[in-house]
Records
---
Amino acid sequence: DPTAWLPDELLWMILVQVLAGGLCGRVCRRWHAVCAGATAKKQAWEWRWAGYTHGKATPRTLRGDAESEIYSLATSLNHALYCGDVDGEIHVWSTVTNTHLQTLEERHTAAVLALVVGNDGTVYSASADSTVRLWSGEDGSPLHTLERHTHSVTCLAVGSDGTVYSGSEDTTICVWTHGRGESRHIRALEGHDDTVRSLALSNSCKLYS
C-alpha cells in the first residue's frame, strides 16, 4: 500500500478533502514529490509532501475561469500542468508561477478522459468523442487527430519511441505510430469483452491492459 508510510493525520485530511471537494475519480499521486488532484470544479490542487510537518499540509489551488468538472491531468518536464475537462477543453497551468497559461485550441467535442505527455513534450488527449488528439508541447497548437475507435477513448499509454496505445469502450486497443510529423494507425488489439479502462507500458515495451 503506497499510503502506508503517510501519517494518519494526513491520510484523514486527504479523505476529508476528497469527500468535501467531490473529486472526480481520485487524488492523482506522484509519491515523495508533487501531487496534483482534480476537483469537480475547474481547479487543481498541488500537494507538496516534503513540507508536511505535524499534521499541517496546505494545497496550492490552481483555478480556471469557469466551473466545469476536471476529468484528467498530466504534467510535463517544463513545469506545465494539463487539465482536461468535461466540456472537451484542455487548460494549461504553470506549476512554478501558479498561473493559467492557455486553453488549447480546437477542443474535443466531449469530455477529455485521459492525458499523457510524451518524452518529446507532445501532449496526447483521449476523449469521449472517440478520438485521440496530439498537441505541441511548445505552443499548444494542434498536431493530429487520430480516429479509429467507435466509442469513448478512456485511457492512453505512450512508448519512448512515440508509439501510442489507446483503450476504448469499444473493447479494443488501437496502436499508432507518431513521428516525423505524421501519425498513423498500425493495428487494433482485440480480446477484452468490456471497456478498456487502464493501460500500462513497461520498460521492456510490454503493454498491460
Note: The longest strand covers residues 182-189.
---
Amino acid sequence: MTSSRPSSSSTTTSLSATASLVDFSKYEGLGNDFILIDDRDKDAPSLTPEDSVSLCHRNFGIGGDGVIFALKAPTDDHDFTMRIYNSDGSEPEMCGNGIRCFAQFLKDLGADAESYRVNTLAGTIIPVMNDDGTITVDMGEPELIGANVPTTLESNFDGDSVVEQTMECNGKTWKVSAVSMGNPHAVIFVDDLENDIAFESDGPALESADVFPARTNVEFVQVMDETHLKMKVWERGAGPTLACGTGACALTIAAIRAGKIPGGNKVRVTLPGGDLFIEWNEETNKVYMTGPADFSFSGKAAVKELP
C-alpha cells in the first residue's frame, strides 16, 4: 500500500486460485469513502458486485462504502461513465459524494479539466473543479412525482408529490417527504436528532419499508436555522455513513417545499463527516452541491472470497 497518487494504468493480476490483485485508489468525501478503479479502457466494470463486497469489507478487504469505476464514455456527448457498487453489492443510480471523488480521481490520473460530463444511471452529471479545491456538481433536476421516486405513499402536494405524508413504520408514525436525485430519498424532519429517533433500528426499517419498492435512502433532519440543516443518513445498500451528497440535495429541497426554510439561499448541510453546501434554483429546477473530495491512498488489493 502506498500514499502516492494513482497512476494512469489499472491492472488485475492473478494471485492464486481463490484471489487476484487489483490496482485501486481510495478517496473520501466528508468521510464517505470509496475505492476507485481505473477502467477507462472498458465499457463495463472489471469487478463483480461480489468482488466489490469483498473489497469494501473493513476487516478482510480495503474497507469502503462502495467501489466506483471510471469507464469509457458511451457517446461523444460525455467524457466518462461512472458506475458504483455499494458495500452490499447493490448498484445505486448515483452518489453525490462519489461523483466528487470520481472527479478528483480523474484529475489525479491526468485527465485534468475544469469540468467533466459524466454518464451515470441517473443521467448526465457535471462536476466542476473549483480553484479552492472544492468541487461543485450540477446534480440535475430532482424528481418530485411520488410514483417516480418511487414510493406508493399517497400524493398530497403539488404535482403529485409527497410532502410530509404520514406513514407507520417500526411501531412509529412518521411524516415523510419523498424526493429522487436519480436515487430515492425519504426525508424526515425531527426536533432533536439525538433523542427523537432510534437510528440503528428506524433507519433500516424505513429503508426497506413496503412503500418504497426500490428501497430508499433515509435522511433524518433537524432545522438549525433558515440556512443551516443538520442530518443523519441511513443509506440504501450501505447503512449508516458519514455523508450522502444526493441526500443533502434531497433534504434541502424537502425543507423548502415543506416550508421549513425559505428558498433562494445557499444552504449549509451538516453531516456527521462535515458540511456540504446546496443550492436549488427553483426557476431552472437545477440543484448544485459543493464540497470536498480527498485522496487517501493507493495500492494493490487481493480480491478474495469472504469467510
Note: The mean pLDDT is 95.
---
Amino acid sequence: FCKMAQTLWCFDFDGVLCDSATETGHSGLTAAEEVFNLEVTPNRDAIVAKFIQTRPILETGWEAVLMTFLLRQGHTVEHVLSHFHASLKEQTLKLHNVTQDQVKLAFKGARNRQLQEALPTWLDLHGQYAEACAAVKHLTQATGRHQVYIITTKGKEFALRLLAQFEIHVDEKHVFGLGSGPKPDVIAALVREQSVEPRIVFVEDRLATLQAFNRARASNADLSSLDTTLILANWGYNTGQQREQAAKDVTMAVYSQNDLAMLVESRLKSDSIS
C-alpha cells in the first residue's frame, strides 16, 4: 500500500478570503482614540475610507491604530503609503511615548468590545471574497488528499468567528493566527508532520510574504524540494506595482478568484482520475 502525497492548501485570510479593511479601519480608529486620548472622531467614515487606500502596506492589524491616527492628524494617504514603515511608525510611538504592546492591547480591546456589545454590526463590517471562499469550501468538502489550512496574522479567535460566518468548515487545529510565527515556519512544520512529501499551494495577497517563503525555501530543507505553487491574490490588498513584480517572478503566479476556482477544480479532477 503506497501512501498518497497530500496537497496542503495554505490560505491567508484577510485579503484572500475576507475583506476586512473597513472593520480594521474602524477598530484601529477606536483604539487610536483611546491610546492617544482623542475626542471621538467626527468624520469617522472619511478616515476609514482613507485607511482602506493605505491598507496594502499594513503588515499586522495593530498598525491600523497608528495609520488611522496619522490620517486623522492630517497626513495624506500618499504620505502614509510612502513613509509609514520607513519612519512614521517608529516616530509616532516615540513621540507619544507609547509602546507596541500598548497599541496591540488597545486594538484587541476595541475588537473584543465590539464583538461582545455589537456582534452583528462587527460581522457586517466584513465582506467575503465569494469566489475564493467557494473554492475553499469545495476543497473542505473533498475527501482524501486535500487539506486546508488558514495561516493569518489576525487573532485566531477573530478568524474562527468569521470562518463560521462564511460557513467555511476548517478544523480549528488547521487555523494558525497571530503569534503562530512566520508563515514559512508554520508551513515547514506542517510539512514535517507528513509521512510522504506533500505538495504545497500557498495563496497570499502580500508579495513580501511570498518572497519570504522563497528565501526560507533556499535555507530550509523541509521546504526546498517540495512541489510548490505560490499564488499572489490579485483581488487582495496589493498594489499594481506589486502585481507587476510578481508577474515577472517565475517562482509565483498572479491569480484572479476565477483562476483559483479553476485550479481547485482541475486538481480535484486530476486526483479523482489518478
Note: The longest helix spans residues 77-95.
